[in-house]
Amino acid sequence: MSDLHAPARDDADVMIRLEGVSKRFPHAGADAVRPLDMSIRRGEFVVLVGPSGCGKTTTLRMINRLIEPSGGRILIDGKDAAAADPDQLRRGIGYVIQQVGLIPHMTIAQNIGLVPGMLGWDRTRIAARVDELLHLVGLDPEEYRRRYPKQLSGGQQQRVGVARALAADPPVMLMDEPFGAIDPITRDRLQEELLQLQQRIRKTIVFVTHDIDEALRLGDRIAIFAEGSRLAQFDTPLEILANPADDFVRSFIGERAAIRRLSLLRMSDLPAAPGPESAAGSVVPAAPEETVAAVLDRMLAAGAERVEVAGGTSFSVQQMLFAATHGRQLHDGRGAQ
Ligand SMILES: Nc1ncnc2c1ncn2[C@@H]1O[C@H](COP(=O)(O)OP(=O)(O)OP(=O)(O)O)[C@@H](O)[C@H]1O
């Protein structure tokens, strides 16, 4: 597997490449998407984020040719998308949208089995795949496979939407505000589930949202679009929070960037604490994968002076904050493109 935080070394690392891709709709006075260059690596989770009308959805839908570009070229796994048969192209690209788009008179199993059916899989293979996918998205097949979409909650329908998009095991998934219409608590859970799922399936995901917090939480890299589809910054969440490219990005990410960065940084990201250790004060233990914010919260609640990270390093509160704000060298080079 390629290191997602290193620059793409060669074309073999790139799954989706946009080369000067633009779109002008008929009778429109300006481009909905101005010539755009972007490379998305194999297994990378990229989030397109930006204000309404800046061209995120249009960009996404050009990748599976639901919208035909007016200019430029899109390469998927090195092949020109324009040369592919559009139906075949779309079967190889999972697509999840906010409205879910489940077919109301079909059962959940039939909805999920739609694309495998088109690909000519036999019934037994489809049934096994449907059950496997329901398990994968956390729905008990016994309970859900025979239900109809309206007998499911919004969050459950969205899980089925993800299962359906994964049915034929496509290497690429496009997700257009999939959690936009879901209540905040369910949305939070679906985001967490999607991250865990991605750990296991490692698809190349392009995800559209206008919610910067969702983008920061989900993306390996985030493409921040400004008005007129200008790509203001394309980088890792940590880098964007630490080094916004311009005033637009700064105002789009909003307040408390440094604090929010602590919610993304893991203890294992911190360089070793400098200076001598003081023996005084109580100590809390922490796991390397815990975020700095979570550990800090525990230390403050316990009135602890030090934290000991399993496997070695120990920090005082001050050392930990210093490492979190000055440990930039660890992240330099990430996301360079
Ligand atoms: N079919 C169409 N015909 C004409 N103009 C369109 C069409 N679809 C989109 N546009 C225009 O293209 C621009 C980009 O739209 P797009 O839907 O890609 O933006 P977006 O960033 O996804 O916005 P939102 O967050 O509101 O969904 C907008 O100005 C929109 O009005």
TrEMBL record:
Keyword line: ATP-binding, Nucleotide-binding, Repeat, Transport
GO biological process, one term: glycine betaine transport
SUPFAM superfamilies (UniProt xref): P-loop containing nucleoside triphosphate hydrolases (SSF52540)
EC numbers for this chain: 7.6.2.9
Keyword NADP: no
An MF annotation (GO) of this entry: ABC-type quaternary ammonium compound transporting activity
The keyword Nucleotide-binding is assigned to this record: yes
Pfam families: ABC_tran
Residues covered by the ABC transporter domain: 16-253
UniProt similarity note: Belongs to the ABC transporter superfamily.
Protein name, as recorded: ABC-type quaternary amine transporter
